[in-house]
Amino acid sequence: MLPYGRQTIEDDDIAAVAEALRGDFLTTGPTVEAFERAFAETVGARHAVACANGTAALHLAMLALKVQPGEVVIAPSITFLATANCARYVGADVVFADVDPDTGLMTPQTLAQAIGHVGDRRLRAVLPVHLRGDVAELPALAALAAAAGAVLVEDAPHALGTTMRFGNAAETVGDVRHSAMATFSFHPVKTIATGEGGMVTTNDPAIAERLRTLRSHGMVRPAGAEPWWYEMPEPGFNYRLPDILCALGLSQLKKLPRFAARRRTLAAAYAEALAPLAPLVRQAVRPAWSDPVLHLMTVLIDFEAAGRSRLEVVEALKARGVGSQVHYIPVHRQPYYRDLYGDLDLPGADAWYARCLSLPLYPGMEDGDVATVVSALRAALKI
Ligand SMILES: *Cc1c(COP(=O)(O)O)cnc(C)c1O
Prior knowledge:
The protein is α/β, with parallel strands linked by helices. Helix content is 38%, strand content 15%.
């Protein structure tokens, strides 16, 4: 069975974890900082703060910005639940932005529409999601957010390794040139894996310090105080990432260039193999500024024209040993958000959802696997 995504764990990753287990610190030791430094350097940010998972990273970002109850956070509807939920954790309201139906990304147009729904409330943060690994139009989104008094927080778990070019400058996702923070996840399907794990990057030292305090109960140790003394100006959480997992993260991060190259090679093979299936099957559209390390190989299928439902296609793929997944059910359609905000009309998100299907993509795939997947897709669609 080819799953839609999976981790690549090798002997040296296992050895790195074993070494951490034999060391003095299972948690809160020097490997945390080593992983953070290596990660910051990799993406080109000044600071990186490790935490328990990508959801904790988003929650910490909201806390670091001191987002208050009744304030507003804008999130796209096509994303994982956590992008919206982090606003609710701090009592803020979510305004859902629509997405471009062919990229799945929040755009300046859909953000402008969403800002129109903020009303009298205070908008604090806009959370673009680099869906699949392609990057949203950050400079334009940042300008709109700034004009409304808010900052960007990039929810970037799909885009570790993605580079971009706005004008002449080459940039890397996570370098946070247009945003206050970027968040990452090391869940097994993401580009590097620690089982559970997350990271926040920022160029602002005050934000970095707040993130570190808040991930460990909100405890601070004032300079000059007795060695046992700590103070808690505001409650935080236990969102730490243990040394055991930071050791795995460090080992995985060294492989990012290889993992990224393999994902790019597989994506190019998909592009070639899928081209003859148009217009029934199309790839998600790549924005001009984006040079992605794709996390997801999402295709857009016209199920109606094919005369096959998505469920039939998913089951036919499965019968041929090919896993697939839907990224994502629009978050504004979740019962919780319907109860809160009623039935919203976000036609781009609905159009994306109606057609999307993610096919297997991970570094451990063999060369012939792309052809296997595409011929299974042809068979499933009877084309
Ligand atoms: C994976 C993911 C998250 C959550 O990360 P976890 O580590 O699973 O908590 C949040 N947002 C997006 C876009 C993700 O893909």
